[in-house]
Structure to design on (397 residues):
């Protein structure tokens, strides 16, 4: 029965490697996400090392049970094209005689888009790792434990992959985000919110720190109803409970509030969860929890919410290099510096006093909206394929 077990391990190692490659390419070319791409690549290499050590053990012991070497020194045998005599797992391969090669599952050859391709590959990956782990126990517990560790990482990778794709889809059309705080409104807060929506805001956030829960809930309901009427997003600052109670579209969290994971447990899956960050370290930690957007700031000094340290546009650019989760630039942004932000990285622009403190918040919103739309149009033109001149190539590992 050991021969059959090795055939199963061989088949599932191939399946797992192939699944990881499909996932990695999706993260790299479709999501354009450096962190997810690196996670998939590291996992693929770690799987190769585990399999290489297992193969080395089998060569040494003649397929007897023995502790696997954990140094990965024989990983080269995995892909070096060595003969079956040198690779005891491949030696048990029988593709021609495998009855499973002619069996087709319903819908196996139908995928709607690249997202479905990646989702199916992620499922195959975790299933294959489970099979390797279970049949690996026949030969060596250390090998099985290494595969188990990779399997748990694969679950996390699958979740991050799918949540990142979802966040991109949810926030893809949000270009201008306005925070509504009554104390910073030149006129009535509700009229200011309505003017911002009429001027082109895609999303409004209610941020009121001093209201009682009852008054906050009443105001949140009014803002949410207004946003729904205009088919725009309503976000509540700090309070997942208020967001859920008023039927808003989501919640925005600070660094000292409930984390993204905890907030998701309290909210329906359809809710948007965003989080504020002020440094690259915070951005990297936030990305691991996969919020629907990451707010980065402050971009400039702001009287609305003073900070000891200005993150600046450099931090925004660094965030885009790390993750493809939608970014929201915030803090001190107005018409005079909005272009600096939009040049630093593709992002949503979030403002407060430059709209709420204006004598004509609708016109102020319209002016900012034009800047956002112009930057988006410029990005789209720059990303058009080059059809003349010498082709540009880059090395792909």
């Amino acid at each position: 029965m050991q021969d059959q077990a090795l055939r199963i391990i061989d088949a599932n190692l191939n399946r797992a490697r192939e699944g990881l490659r499909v996932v990695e390419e999706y993260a790299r070319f479709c999501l354009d996400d450096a962190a997810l791409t690196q996670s998939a690549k590291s996992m693929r290499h770690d799987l190769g090392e585990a399999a290489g050590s297992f193969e080395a053990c089998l060569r040494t012991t003649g397929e007897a049970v023995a502790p696997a070497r954990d140094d990965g020194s024989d990983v080269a045998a995995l892909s070096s094209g060595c003969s079956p005599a040198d690779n005891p797992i491949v030696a048990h391969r029988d593709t021609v005689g495998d009855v499973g090669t002619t069996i087709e599952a319903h819908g196996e050859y139908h995928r709607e888009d690249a997202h479905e391709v990646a989702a199916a590959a992620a499922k195959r990956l975790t299933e294959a790792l489970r099979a390797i782990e279970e049949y690996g126990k026949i030969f060596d517990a250390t090998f099985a434990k290494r595969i188990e560790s990779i399997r748990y990482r694969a679950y996390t990778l699958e979740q991050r992959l799918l949540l990142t794709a979802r966040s991109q889809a949810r926030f893809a059309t949000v270009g201008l985000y306005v925070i509504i705080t009554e104390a910073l409104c030149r006129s009535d807060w509700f009229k200011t919110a309505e003017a911002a929506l009429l001027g082109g805001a895609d999303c409004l956030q209610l941020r009121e720190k001093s209201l009682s829960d009852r008054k906050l809930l009443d105001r949140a309901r009014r803002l949410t109803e207004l946003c729904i009427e205009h088919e725009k997003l309503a976000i509540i600052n700090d309070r997942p409970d208020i967001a859920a109670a008023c039927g808003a579209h989501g919640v925005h969290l600070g660094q000292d509030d409930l984390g993204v994971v905890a907030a998701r447990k309290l909210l329906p899956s359809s809710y948007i969860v965003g989080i504020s960050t002020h440094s690259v370290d915070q951005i990297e930690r936030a990305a691991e929890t996969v919020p629907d957007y990451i707010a980065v700031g402050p971009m400039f000094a702001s009287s609305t919410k003073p900070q000891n340290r200005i993150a600046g546009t450099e931090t925004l650019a660094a965030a885009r290099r790390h993750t493809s989760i939608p970014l929201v630039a915030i803090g001190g942004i107005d018409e005079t510096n909005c272009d600096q932000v939009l040049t630093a990285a593709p992002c949503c622009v979030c403002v407060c006093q430059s709209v709420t403190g204006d004598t004509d918040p609708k016109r102020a919103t319209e002016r900012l909206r034009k800047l956002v739309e112009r930057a988006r149009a410029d990005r789209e033109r720059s990303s058009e394929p080059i059809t003349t001149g010498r082709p540009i190539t880059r090395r792909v590992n």
Observations:
- The chain has two domains: 2-168, 172-382.
- The two ends are 39 Å apart (CA to CA).
- Confidence is low (pLDDT under 50) at residues 64-82, 386-397.
